[in-house]
Amino acid sequence: MDTTELIGLVAATMTTSAFLPQVVKTWRQKSTKDISLLMYLVLTTGTLLWLLYGVLIDSLPIMLANAITAFLLCCMLLLKWRYR
Fold first, then answer.
1. Is a pLDDT exceeding 80 seen at residue 28?
2. Is there a domain that residue 6 lies in?
3. Is residue 9 predicted with pLDDT exceeding 90?
4. How many domains does the chain have?
């Protein structure tokens, strides 16, 4: 693995893991009143497009980061729907 790929994987890990505390907090508090549905819909759409881009250029860091981020964002959208 070259340095560029390693930097991409570290960056992907850091930016993706940033969503985890919000998912956990929402799950525990069972409240999404302060969560913007529109923001999460737009962010999820953009993340899915980044995932597609990663697939098209065959970039592992982009694919992994955006697949995991999309999963976490979908969890937030499901929690938003469940705790509405």
1. yes
2. no
3. no
4. 1
